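Hey, sorry to bother you again with one of my protein questions. There's a protein on my desk that I can't quite get my head around. No rush at all, and the record is pasted right below.
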Amino acid sequence: MPTSFDDLPHEEQLLRLQNLAGAALVQYDLPEGATAEMINLSENATYRVDASDGGKWALRVHREGYHSKTAIASELNWAGALRDSGAVITPTAIPGKDGEIIQSVAHPDLPNPRHVVLFEWESGAEPDEEQDDLRAPFEVLGELTAHMHLQVRDWQRPDWFERLTWDFETSLGDKPHWGRWRDGMGLTPEITDLFAKTVALIGRRLEAFGKSPKRFDLIHCDMRLANLLIDGEVTKVIDFDDCGFSWLMYDCATTVSFFEHKPEVPDLLASWVRGYRKVIDLPDEDVHEIQTFVMLRRLLLVAWIGSHSETDLAQSMGVQYTRETVGLCEKYLADYG
């Protein structure tokens, strides 16, 4: 019998996480009989909690060893500061019966306790990524992102604030947070050589671009349409789990995650820039480098898929995603090399 959670079959992992999520509910002041149903599994497991009176909440069970308790508290602190400042609307975390926002939950099925956070359920729906014209939603994305970047400029972070840094070394270099791009699915010697040349060019361009405070700061790091909720005339931003220190234009690149190779992407990125410029001036030099960040993100996701092969998203993308990256690399080398 495997002793490590990571060595367990995927279905067994899901069952054990479900059991822990159920155990976590008793640590909150929730109606009796509330139930938890998984709605997403990525770095963390996220559950919708339902009560018989119609009440809803979102429960997040954190992956073991990924973020420290201080890092989780930092994420929640920034999301709260954004909400309080009026920059964007973000989900509100709910304390447990002991008054603590971050709960530690143990269960016999798991070797170690997990950090757990309960959020108020935010009404609204994700923008439909299958609609014919996404330019308007992308303009909204750009505008929201600029408001978040503007808030960070003036916000005094707590001394204890701790979040991951997403730079070249921790994405495609020697200290990758999400695994090595060389371990992506479906790599051949030819594709590996092409990717290596692309990675080297990305590294050179980012070194020249630099990390001045106007270009590198605290950002969301996953500003996809999937992390927006449209509620009438209001747009909300969710899922700050990846937030950390990176280039501001990396937020732009994340908007086209998993479909960077689609022909409509240049128009969508231009719409994002238009929205952003409604709030903050954006130099042409920064706009010109967006494609470097798109490539950084694309190859980072190749690494993520390779190291998260158990997730539905990774399985649905798999080898095909790697193959569709080839043309992007060839064009990037031709245009920027």
About this structure: The chain is about 45% helix and 15% strand. The longest helix spans residues 312-336.
